[in-house]
Specification:
Order of helices and strands: HEEEHEEHEHEHEHEEEEHEHHEE
Shape: elongated
CATH architecture of the largest domain: 3-Layer(aba) Sandwich
Radius of gyration: 28 Å
Number of strands: 15
CATH superfamily of the largest domain: P-loop containing nucleotide triphosphate hydrolases
Amino acid sequence: MSEEIKQIIAAAHFKDEDIIQPPPLITIGGKTIATEGNFITISGLPKSRKTTFAFLMAAAAITGQNLFDIQVNTSQEENILLIDTEQSIFDFSKQIGLLKHFIGTKKLPKNFNAYLFRKYDVKEILQSLYTLMQEQKPKIVILDNLTELAMNVNDPIETKTLIQFLKRITAEFNCVVVCLLHLGKGGINTLGHLGSFSDRGAQSTLKVTKDKDTDISTLEPIFLRSDANFNPISIFFNPDTKHYEQTEATNTKPVKKSILDDLTEADHYAKMSLIFAYAKRITYAELWAEIKKYYGVGANIAKQKIIPLLLSKKILISDKGIYKLI
């Protein structure tokens, strides 16, 4: 057995002692999101405001204030590190301007350092990040975007190695890493093996969605390892006040009413009476075609909703594909 393995085994050996749970570094709505030695993920589609919520965490750390129910319990002496992997220098500058807006200053505080690594490859970025961790020993690290730190998000070996790197630096430097991560095209699951491994390893998995109609972005919990779920947080940018504001309306998009909602059984029977006025029995194809005409709906609604409803209400009966009015 090598000396290196001996040291690893000794360090990994569990000591049967009382361990006091560390106080949370990040809370949302009073719920524990992150404690020292962990990473969390904030996932969402591009432009959903993932970075905005990450910057709210940074601003809460810098100011010591509760911002939109987000609280970060760090001191002004503890460093915060931002690593950006994908934006242009102009867009990056605009994002930094957003952070200055949140903290109400024209200059970044001394304990906050930001780096733009867009033009460098993955290996160079990870080596640079580890060096910065050694030099600055930050308490909070924001990685925007974790997806750019893997050449292939579907490579299980590469992505597992990346997640192990996150586990290593959080344990070694006793910090919290906030990872921003893209969702797939469907907007439901995080990308590839990287998303799967990060979901498993994260202390908390959060998701940001944006309503295109209302321009409201909502941060919600997907999985919290250390606490119960918090109530979703919804924000929007108010062009009149030039500030982000919180809203209780987490889903203000109007719900489209179904054609069936306002129809009574008598209404359905009246429409069926018109359809069956000249034929006592009709085929399935004839039935849904007539329903399209009299109800003003598409074929799918006619087949999947209206016909089953009429059968369940005993307005129609079917015998071997032939329908008649009761």
